[in-house]
Specification:
Keywords: Hydrolase, Magnesium, Metal-binding. InterPro entries: AP_endonuc_1, AP_endonuclease_F1_BS, Endo/exonu/phosph_ase_sf, Endo/exonuclease/phosphatase, ExoIII-like. It is an enzyme of class 3 (hydrolase). The longest helix is centred in the middle third of the chain and has 22 residues. The chain has a single domain, classed as 4-Layer Sandwich (Deoxyribonuclease I, Chain A), CATH 3.60.10.10. The protein has about 260 residues and is α+β, with helices and mostly antiparallel strands. The relative contact order is 0.16. Helix 3 runs parallel beside helix 4. The model has no long low-confidence stretch (mean pLDDT about 100). The strands form two sheets. It has a six-stranded mixed β-sheet with strand order 3-4-2-1-12-11.
Length: about 260
Amino acid sequence: MKIATYNVNSVNARLPVLLRWLQESAPDVVCLQELKAIQENFPEEAIRNAGYTAIWHGQKSWNGVAILSRVGNITERCRVLPGDPEDLHSRYIEAVVNGVIIGCLYLPNGNPAPGPKFDYKLSWLKRFAIHAKALLTEELPVVLTGDFNIIPTGKDVYKPERWVDDALFRPESRAAFQELIAQGWTDAIRQLHPEETIYTYWDFFRNAFGRDAGLRIDHFLLSPQLVPQLQKAAVDKQVRGWEKTSDHAPVWIELKD
């Protein structure tokens, strides 16, 4: 099963890019983030015509997450991260596809840091860690994937010294990511490519993509039940170079059936 994650940076504005990539890459399951569309404006018909069923949680102007499948029914488990009933951001959706629990997340950016937005990022991370730990206790195959807005280590960013004060690279953010790994989750990209320079995001400014001045912030965390099934993990970097594309590239893993 090929599972992909893609921060589309507006699902309707990037729809031609998304549909082209779906046709060329043919992932079985896709997690989308940053839909930037209210619930009724999700392009369900176009996605269905591409061969995918979908569930999604939209939000006006920003955020928004979705799960697409072409290999089986999507059984929704939840569409909000537990722990704060007053949090109205559309940042998490979870479902079962082909026996695998898939959590799709769009973690807060947190900038400027320090400040209220960074505090919200850290509080969201604490809630996410509690939920992730609970998922592990179920002892089922689980994939947690999406735009984590965290640069885990210095080798995951071009010129890390320029990012020391950024919310994506601050020690608190990196520590939270490592605490997830310590729970028992496996970073799929680093499991297969421990030393390779791999980026998933390139800013629209300063010719970042042309200079390959990127970040690795889109991740796959696998529960122990899935690690032996992991065969491939890669970034469809070429998509970032397409016209009117997102500032992220799709990332995917391949699991044995």
